[in-house]
Amino acid sequence: MIRALTGFSTRNPWKVIAVWAVLGMLLTVLSQTLIYRVTQTQTADFLPKSYDSAAAMAIAHDRFGTKPDANPVTILVARTDHRALTPADKARIDAGAQRLSRLEVTMPKTKDAAPLQRDYSQTPQVGPAMTAPDGTFELLSANLTGNSADPGLESTFRAFRDNARAEFAAQGLRTGFTGALADQVDSTDDGKTLATVASVGAFALIVLLHVLVFRSVLAALLPLISVALISGVAGGAVVGTALLTGIKIDSSVPSLIGVVLLGIGIDYFLFLMFRFREQLRAHPDRHHRATAAEVSQKVGTAVTSAALTIVAAFATLGVASFGQFRVLGPAIAVSVLVMLLASLTLMPAVLAACGRKLFWPSRALKAEPREGAAARFGDLVARRPLTMVLASLALLGALAGGLAGIKMDYGLGGGPRTASQSTALEISRALPAGVADPTSVYVETKNAGPLSLGSLDGLTQHLTRVAGVGQVAKPVLSEDRRAARIDLFLTADPQSQQARDLVSGPVRAAVAQRTPAGLTAHVGGTPAVFADVSTAVDHDLRLVFPVAAVLIGVILLLLLRSLLAPVILMLSVGLGFAATLGAAALLFQHAMDKPGVNFTLPLVLFLFVVALGTDYNILISDRIREEMEHPGPPRAAVARALRHTAPAIATAGLVLAGSFGSLAVTPQPSTQQIGFATALGILLSAFLLSIVLVPALAAIFGRSLWWPVRPERMTTQPTGRHHAGTPRSPQSPPRAQRPAPQHEDTYL
pLDDT tens digit string along 335-375? Predict the structure, then answer.
């Protein structure tokens, strides 16, 4: 299959490129147009119905008509002099709320809007919610419906906010806005410049590395252009699959897909271009399409195995109970399969179409490169393998020591204070912090007849005595009187760990004790949802880790046809995972005194660091095996493999780490942790595991590493080019017979 795909692509390069270009442009437009129709932003919707908060949300939807895409907004209206509101002020506020309830908010049209973007124009209902005990402000409530991740709804909220500000400013009053949607829009606006700088920085890093390595602008730009096309196809495939199956994906999936595909796509292109350049030098008289076909077939085998390990790792998320994980895994798996297909078709076609011009204006193909740092380092690893192994294990062990006492942090805030958060803080000084985001107890009757407010007095009174519950609102009955809602206003920030502990412990215990016979009760709201999310994530981590490890191990077993080599590779990436997570705990939990590491970090690191780090291990192992098929000592083979492969792995690691590292400069602490830790894990995988530990172990075990199917020793020997800078076997030509080194194309 690999030979057929790469062979066809290198024989018909322009046809293959044309097909991918058309697909890329069409599916990019499709994905941008329809992505927000297949995404959802309510975390509770991803929980199984068996969880308490999910059952509460079902009652809210069925009995109270709560829309799943409703986005509540709390509006604070106060005097500009911070004095208590007068009766005249209150009358003006009520009149202003009524006028806003009759005013349609038209979604602004922006230049960068996606084609066929959904129109979120609407007339939100605005009404009084609560007045501060000291009378200094009044709260109004409003609801905007739509996908909160869609820029169209964000623009609609900005228009509504402008209308409300203008309405009350004309009355000499000031306004503030809070709620999840308001906070999201403020964070987006505040972090827009930083996000742009980070994206431009990551792009510039990738281009700069390619220019430095290949001395060619074309070799720097073509991979980026190709990966952009492939990402468009992958995005369209994910959106199309979601539309056909009716599955809703999380709003973070598109950005994660982009980062993953950028990283692995550039990696695979680098692997091919390094080997292509090497073979063009070794066979200057051969036609470049024949060279492209041979290289694509050889590297394609390793790339296929590497991609399948990522697919296997992410596919295991399909068995997770938390829906956000369950849809993330298959979505990224589909995207990686698209990238794999492109690696076997589009990338070989680009090599075949460009040929030697790909590296213009560099003169690297006309001269043998001098023995650079990679050759010297390969020689060092081959001569001192035990020292390298011990040093690597010492460093990994020291970093893994950070796992002692590690804690998970389920906090959502902690970033730079936005205008929305400042408004919430002002409200919390006079009212319980949970006023803008109440915790709700839903009581439902099945066969006990209609509910009455009196039957809920005991439960309501008991809830008022729970420490941490600031106020308890009067119960509200549904229209059919089959359900009731009791809103609790907690004294703690609804997004804090304190609120989650309160809801999952005392509040739920009180509800269980005092719910009248014949009724069922469930606790919903932000703290309840994330308390259940923490339970679901803990369950999924214990399930996903071993399943993914087994699948990756099977793939390595089939690829390497060895029992010992897969064990070594799995143990090395396991150490890399432990060291990365430990380093994150040392930095964020201990050095920066955070409550812990973000609760999604272990899973993200396992999937990205283990799966993507295995790519580099597969590449170096495949080349070591190939070199060991030649005559000579195994250590010489390891040195040759490092000389030719270390530059590709180092460059790929820097590119991928730079892509993820751009996330570390975002305002959100959880994203910062993911960006930093993932970048560190990839650097450890590339520069320590794949270039030091695995080759050193291969030098120690020799050809026994591949037991029970050892590499067959070929009767032909590698050219002198393969021996440059490595320990010389008896068959190696003398160093004096080699061409004089040139400075133009030094290896990294």
Answer: 999 999 999 999 999 999 998 888 887 766 665 666 678 88
Distances from the Cα of 462 to the Cα of 136, 256, 472, 508, angstroms: 31, 45, 10, 12
As beta bridge partners, residue 249 has 39
The answer to whether 113 touches 47, Cβ cutoff 8 Å, is no
**d(Cα 485, Cα 439) in Å, to the nearest integer?**
10
Q: Percent of the chain having pLDDT more than 90?
A: 31
The token duo for 287 is 């036609």
d(CA 187, CA 196): 14
Find, among 287, 118, 283, 168, the residue nearest to 722 by Cα: 283
* pTM for the whole structure: 0.78
Please return the burial class of 587, using the count of CB atoms within 10 Å of its CB with bins 0-12, 13-18 and 19+.
Answer: middle
Amino acid (one-letter) located at 306: A
- Confidence check: pLDDT of 44 > 60: yes
Q: Using the 8-state DSSP alphabet, how is residue 138 labeled?
A: E
Give Cβ neighbours of residue 177 (< 8 Å, ≥ 6 apart). Answer: 73, 74, 75, 76, 161, 164, 419, 420, 423
Bridging pattern class, strands 469-472 and 483-490: antiparallel
Q: What is the pLDDT of residues 60-90, one digit of tens each?
A: 988 888 887 788 999 999 999 989 999 999 9
Q: Tell me, what's the pLDDT at 386? A: 94
Q: What is the pLDDT of residues 634-668, one digit of tens each?
A: 999 999 999 888 888 888 888 888 777 777 766 66
- Cα–Cα distance, 235 to 255 (Å, whole number): 10
E strands, 17-60, where? 39-40
CB 383 within 8 A of CB 635: yes
Is there a contact between 177 and 161 (Cβ–Cβ < 8 Å)?
yes
- Size (the chain), residues: 748
Of the candidates 689, 687, 695, 697, the residue with the CA atom closest to the CA atom of residue 648: 687
Q: Report how far Cα 547 is from the mean position of its chain's Cα atoms.
A: 20
Is the CB of residue 334 less than 8 Å from the CB of residue 325?
no
Q: What is the pLDDT of residue 77?
A: 95
Asked whether the CA dihedral 584, 665, 683, 304 is positive or negative, the reply is positive
Tell me how many helices (H) and strands (E) the chain has: 25, 13
Residue type, 636: A
Q: How far apart are CA 612 and CA 605, in angstroms?
A: 10
Q: How many CB atoms lie within 10 A of CB 721?
A: 16
Distance of CA 299 to the CA centre of its chain: 27
CB 423 within 8 A of CB 181: no
Q: State how far the Cα of 605 lies from the Cα of 678, in Å rounded to an integer.
A: 6
